[in-house]
């Protein structure tokens, strides 16, 4: 049976941290949280896999063509899952911060090296290290572990706030995010307009000023970074298909470093707000299934009713106005503010709340118990399964593996997604039948406590 026992604090792997580090029984778990995490983890692969496997601007080939099956598959994923699975994963990560700290603080003061705060920051510090490995060694450009480690350290300080204030972070950050993205959008737009003015002067035979020459250089640099042309895409693809690991690595390392440093400030706000929302939803009892079924039904119907309307309109708007990367440049020249971007944070929250309500209602119904148990096992091993996505996809697509990069149609990628889902839904519960943690969860736990932790199940009491 699926059990919900929110009175028992557990860590972000939803496992009780006892002062003697004893193994924990299944009764001491909040499986609703594991299941939600498992759904999010598997769902994230829907959005990630094209970035493992396809060249830049891959969607330009079908974004404007409703007669192409890839158009409708992309529409389905964009409308129902894009951003929502990452949002759910971030929310559950925020829940994990509260659960990890609750047991430690309840255990009372300990030596500084083993204090609740010290353990938490060591835990997040190691997550940052794992993220750097996932991105710079395993070469996954979309790694989130690094960001979660950094942002988790920030979210930590908000965990004791009232849930209402925590939830207010979502609209506040939506506004901040829109302002920041608009500032970034306008800075790129200004470079484009300055380039067009310099280009026009050049075509009219006017002698270029130093500012005009610099404007051309600035736009060419921005274009190379954000709007690669066919020759640049071909060169990137050549690197990705190289059998030499270091050649493949040279394709992403600078972009990764820029994202983790120069552009970090732009990426902090959204996951932070979602982690805080997760904390609020835990305190309100939403994610632990404590609400009446009627309220979950209301949340689901409202979320799908408004959310689907907003996201469908947004998708159609972009289909009409920005069907390709180069169409975006033309759009940017004409529009100083991208107002349609305001829709995204609100439709996403509405739909992620609807998705979560649907899952919790399914849990409460007692149906498809076997599938739910498997999803819970995937969620319990989320760290291991996430890195497994990296290992499988880089092996299949990168040049030093099976070299399938830029070889598959968009729709074909999802046969591999289905295969990975099936593998993880089968292997995760089998592994947890014999072991307390996933292998990477065990490493992470041991590093956090700076002590080798037990991993094998020693008694059927813990099965």
TrEMBL record:
<keyword id="KW-1133">Transmembrane helix</keyword>
<feature type="transmembrane region" description="Helical">
    <location>
        <begin position="296"/>
        <end position="319"/>
    </location>
</feature>
<dbReference type="InterPro" id="IPR007349">
    <property type="entry name" value="DUF418"/>
</dbReference>
<dbReference type="Pfam" id="PF04235">
    <property type="entry name" value="DUF418"/>
</dbReference>
<feature type="domain" description="DUF418">
    <location>
        <begin position="281"/>
        <end position="451"/>
    </location>
</feature>
<protein>
    <submittedName>
        <fullName>DUF418 domain-containing protein</fullName>
    </submittedName>
</protein>
<dbReference type="InterPro" id="IPR052529">
    <property type="entry name" value="Bact_Transport_Assoc"/>
</dbReference>
<feature type="transmembrane region" description="Helical">
    <location>
        <begin position="165"/>
        <end position="185"/>
    </location>
</feature>
<feature type="transmembrane region" description="Helical">
    <location>
        <begin position="75"/>
        <end position="102"/>
    </location>
</feature>
<feature type="transmembrane region" description="Helical">
    <location>
        <begin position="339"/>
        <end position="363"/>
    </location>
</feature>
<keyword id="KW-0472">Membrane</keyword>
<feature type="transmembrane region" description="Helical">
    <location>
        <begin position="35"/>
        <end position="55"/>
    </location>
</feature>
<keyword id="KW-0812">Transmembrane</keyword>
<feature type="transmembrane region" description="Helical">
    <location>
        <begin position="383"/>
        <end position="401"/>
    </location>
</feature>
<feature type="transmembrane region" description="Helical">
    <location>
        <begin position="263"/>
        <end position="284"/>
    </location>
</feature>
<feature type="transmembrane region" description="Helical">
    <location>
        <begin position="413"/>
        <end position="436"/>
    </location>
</feature>
